Amino acid sequence: MKNKFSLHKFAAITQLKFKSMFNKNLIAMPIMAIGMTILLRFLYSSILDGEKMPDFLLGMALSLGLMFSVTMTGMLVTSTVLAEEKEKYTLRTLMTSSVTSLEFFFGSIIPPFVTIMVVNIVLIPVSGLTLSFSEILSYLLITAIGSITSCIIGMIIGIFAKDQMSAGTFTTPVMLIFAMIPVFASMVSDLDNISRFLYTGVITDMVNAFAGGESYTLEPLSAAVLVGTILIAIGLFVIIYKRNGYETD
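The structure assignment produced for this chain is given below.
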């Protein structure tokens, strides 16, 4: 029987995960989200030739930056770090030691989640879109749920991946589905019908409402998508985690 949840061990694993992100240069991925947003603002500015940029273009820049932040950092970083631990047999060692599965799970989620949320906050002034206090609260809540969901999906992929290279191969199509469909949903009606059932689609709908000067209220369908997706992700992770023999309690 393993020990109860230990804050000391949890903190140690969290610190180890942060170091892994920096050692593998994975920290460049969240920076790319900021860079993409800045690039789009410069592009739109050059097209408008100095004219005031409309909010819907600022919203598009923010949406794309968020998609890169939430999906790339959440999925790719998390899956790559976990795959590296499998490749080096660190994960199996941890699971057969005094570290509990909960300590490992939360210790693995916190570093990418904190990184994503910091980037998401930075993206607001970088995009140039002005948000009210209530809009910022909604923004933080919904992007936080989406970020946690992406991290869990990344851990699921990491368990399946044999090594870091396969982790990237498996993650890329999943990441593109969740990131690109919401981005292009406003242009293609068929994609819009799909986007409304994606948690990333809820995030882009929120940003589009802010950019359009509309008050955003989380509709029942959107709330169900957010809650349902994260619950399904957690359930799948628990099942896959146990079936792969990492749960030894």
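Interim note for the steering committee: Residues 83 and 166 are 8 Å apart (CA to CA). The mean pLDDT is 85.
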